[in-house]
């Protein structure tokens, strides 16, 4: 009888969770596992290799749209195939399934990027792929395209055909998107195909939920229809708007039986944090979803994403760039479900791990109560969140250190422009250094957070159980973590009783030497006939501006070389650290015209600007490095002489020669494995 009752309770909880769009009291943190043009960093095999490192910190990983989009590299937003072709720019279907399976085994749910506002075609404006899945044929027709698609351009084309091509009689129920066909979600055929597609993602591929792209493009009720049919564990919509009222309206539009079926990204709070930083962390004047008790459950907060990152002259100046860590400290100490941007994880893994550990130890969930503007000082702002295990204060700003901790609180973290203070009622033994692999000897700070009279810290470094006779340490003591493997246990000793034991495991090794080097970026403009060229460049991981004056349109480049009978403009950049890469945009010097982004360069590269343009009118480019014979050295591997320690360009360590093709660091040198 007990087993039957337990099963019924679990079933009811599951149904309730599915009906709510995003579970209440959820303590997980999500990682956006990609950024724009992260074709190498976000390959399914590369993400899968990080599962052990991600699992202690992230319950969800959002990945790019995973199906094939036709020829050339694609981030997945020009979707074409839905059922039959999963050879994408990030790997093949077998690699995708393997990653999802590995993530699931580690307790990580994979979030699919679902692009159903629009869809691409094969050879004409209206021919969608015909696909079979489990014996059923799925095909969208010309009558599944909104009548006002592309501001009437599609209808004009259809009327010129012989015979004429028919579109839907329904207009778009949201914003239009030029360049691809906007789907009519009132069409029963569109709904049938979408439901089958989403069901496949969940129940065949094993995704945990959906991130719906561009939900401004179709009415919110359709998200409710699709989620009710497929019951994802997690659903979040990209309703890109800084007005909190309109984002709430969209969430309400997804309701079924009075309950929202989807969360939304909290763009309003992202812009509120941006404005806070611009005001040197003064008063937070704007509110977000997390500012409202009714909507905080449905708020997915973030600092940056692939669209808001540093990809244009205006975005380069975004105030968040100067206080990225403090901005992350803000969302990770607040209610809602935080989503950490992959570039920030790559650049600041230790800080972000510390913040997530603090969030968990305080017991903060998406429905916890957060109070904003607790105090505003000269260049600092304070918030507090009441978790199930304690209350966490977060202090952000250049003068965060000047804030006096309130009585009954202990500082557990301090970083660049941020501090975390935890209530003594939490009664925990805090270790600031997260578990993981580190190069060179580290220090771990031990802190007693307790309101118990006479509480002390005791610890061991060999993994043995703690007793009253274990080594003692004063709160605030820093201990050395030596080379090798260390299992550190720290607990609170009150009288003869040890409680609140925290365990960390460290793998410490000697760092491999890295020798900084220079790369040249060569550009040919013959096809477009430009008379001059400017380079607007930034470091790919951190976003640091690499132009001389830091202003758009960047550096005017006049240095040229004639190679293979062509004139090449070139500029030299320094690769100062192991995971440094260069990204850039080229333009004529006035800022217009310009090229698309050219991302993640770490070796001499030859770029031709082509006459083709993207949907925003930016010139496409072609990397012709492999076609240029200039004596550029590509180092090969001497297996006898190679060091046993390798690093990829994201800084991940390998204890043996990597098997995947790519550029790696070995013995301080760049080595390409083909």
Describe, in plain words, how this protein is organized in 3D.
- There is one protein chain.
- By secondary structure, the protein is an alpha/beta fold.
- 19% of the residues lie in helices and 30% in strands.
- It is built from twelve helices and 38 strands.
- Strands 1-2-3-8-9-10-11-12 form an eight-stranded parallel β-barrel, surrounded by five helices. A five-stranded antiparallel sheet has the order 13-14-15-17-16. Strands 19-25-24-21-22 form a five-stranded mixed sheet, with no helix packed on it.
- A hairpin with a 2-residue loop joins strand 13 and strand 14.
- Helix 10 packs parallel to helix 12.
- The longest helix is centred in the N-terminal third of the chain and has 18 residues, at 2-19.
- Residues 1-19, 312-316 and 629-642 have low confidence and may be disordered.
SSE order and pairing:
Elements: H1 2-19, E1 30-32, H2 44-49, H3 51-54, E2 60-62, H4 93-105, E3 109-114, E4 118-119, E5 131-133, E6 136-138, H5 153-160, E7 181-182, H6 188-205, E8 209-212, H7 220-230, E9 234-237, H8 244-253, E10 263-265, H9 267-278, E11 299-302, H10 324-332, E12 337-341, H11 342-347, H12 349-362, E13 369-377, E14 380-386, E15 391-396, E16 409-415, E17 418-423, E18 428-431, E19 436-439, E20 442-449, E21 456-460, E22 471-473, E23 477-481, E24 484-494, E25 497-509, E26 517-524, E27 533-539, E28 555-557, E29 560-563, E30 566-575, E31 582-587, E32 598-601, E33 605-613, E34 619-623, E35 646-648, E36 653-654, E37 662-666, E38 669-673
Parallel strand pairs: 1-2, 1-12, 2-3, 3-8, 8-9, 9-10, 10-11, 11-12, 19-25, 26-33
Antiparallel strand pairs: 4-7, 5-6, 13-14, 14-15, 15-17, 16-17, 18-20, 20-23, 21-22, 21-24, 24-25, 26-30, 27-28, 27-31, 29-30, 31-32, 33-34, 35-36, 35-37, 37-38
Helix pairs in contact: 10-12
């Amino acid at each position: 009888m007990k087993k039957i009752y337990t099963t019924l309770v679990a079933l009811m909880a599951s149904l309730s969770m599915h009906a709510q769009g995003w579970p209440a009291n959820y303590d997980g943190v999500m990682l956006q596992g990609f950024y724009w043009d992260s074709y190498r960093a976000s390959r399914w095999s590369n993400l899968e290799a990080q599962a052990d490192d991600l699992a202690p910190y992230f319950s969800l990983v959002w990945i790019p749209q995973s199906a094939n989009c036709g020829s050339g590299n694609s981030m997945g937003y020009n979707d074409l195939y839905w059922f039959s072709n999963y050879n994408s720019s990030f790997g093949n279907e077998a690699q995708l399934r393997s990653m999802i399976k590995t993530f699931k085994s580690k307790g990580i749910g994979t979030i699919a990027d679902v692009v159903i506002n629009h869809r691409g075609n094969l050879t004409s404006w209206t021919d969608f792929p015909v696909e079979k899945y489990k014996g059923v044929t799925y095909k969208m027709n010309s009558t599944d395209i909104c009548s006002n698609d592309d501001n009437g351009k599609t209808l004009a084309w259809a009327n010129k055909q012989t015979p004429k091509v028919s579109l839907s009689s329904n207009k778009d129920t949201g914003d239009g998107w030029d360049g691809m066909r906007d789907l009519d979600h009132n069409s029963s055929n569109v709904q049938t195909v979408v439901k089958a597609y989403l069901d496949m993602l969940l129940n065949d591929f094993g995704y945990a939920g959906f991130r719906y792209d561009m939900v401004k493009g179709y009415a919110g009720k359709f998200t409710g229809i699709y989620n009710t049919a497929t019951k994802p564990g997690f659903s979040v919509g990209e309703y890109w708007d800084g007005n909190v009222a309109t984002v709430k309206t969209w969430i309400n539009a997804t309701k079924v039986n009075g309950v929202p079926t989807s969360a939304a990204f909290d763009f309003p709070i992202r812009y509120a944090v941006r404005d806070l930083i611009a005001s040197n962390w003064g008063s937070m004047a704007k509110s977000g979803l997390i500012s409202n008790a009714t909507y905080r459950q449905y708020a997915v907060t973030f600092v940056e994403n692939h669209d808001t990152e540093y990809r244009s002259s205006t975005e380069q100046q975004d105030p968040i760039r100067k206080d990225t860590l403090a901005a992350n400290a803000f969302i990770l100490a607040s209610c809602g479900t935080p989503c950490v941007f992959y570039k920030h994880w790559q650049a600041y893994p230790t800080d972000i791990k510390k913040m997530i550990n603090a969030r968990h130890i305080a017991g903060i969930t998406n429905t916890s109560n957060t109070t904003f503007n607790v105090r505003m000082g000269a260049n600092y702002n304070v918030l507090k969140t009441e978790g199930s295990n304690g209350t966490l204060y977060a202090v952000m700003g250049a003068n965060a250190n000047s804030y006096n901790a309130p009585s009954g609180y202990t500082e557990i973290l301090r970083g660049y422009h941020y501090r975390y203070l935890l209530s003594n009622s939490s009664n925990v033994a805090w270790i600031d250094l997260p578990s993981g692999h580190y190069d060179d000897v580290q220090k771990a700070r031990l802190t007693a957070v307790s309101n118990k009279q006479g509480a002390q810290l005791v610890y061991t470094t060999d993994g043995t159980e703690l007793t009253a006779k274990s080594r003692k340490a004063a709160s605030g003591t820093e201990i050395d973590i030596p080379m090798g493997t260390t299992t550190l246990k720290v607990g609170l000793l009150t009288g003869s009783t040890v409680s609140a034991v925290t365990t960390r495991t460290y793998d410490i090794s000697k760092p491999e030497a890295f020798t900084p080097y220079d790369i040249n970026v060569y550009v040919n403009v013959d096809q477009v006939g430009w008379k001059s060229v400017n380079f607007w460049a930034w470091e790919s991981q951190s976003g640091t501006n690499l132009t001389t004056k830091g202003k758009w349109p960047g550096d005017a480049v006049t240095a040229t070389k004639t190679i293979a009978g062509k004139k090449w403009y070139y500029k030299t950049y320094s690769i100062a650290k192991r995971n440094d890469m260069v990204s850039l945009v080229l333009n004529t010097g006035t800022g217009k015209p310009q090229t698309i982004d050219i991302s993640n360069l770490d070796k001499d590269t030859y770029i031709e600007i082509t006459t083709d343009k993207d949907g925003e009118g930016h010139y496409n480019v072609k990397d012709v490095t492999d076609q240029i014979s200039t004596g550029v050295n590509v180092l090969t591997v001497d297996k006898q002489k190679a060091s046993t320690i390798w690093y990829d360009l994201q800084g991940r360590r390998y204890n043996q020669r990597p098997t995947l093709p790519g550029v790696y660091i070995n013995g301080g040198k760049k080595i390409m494995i083909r």
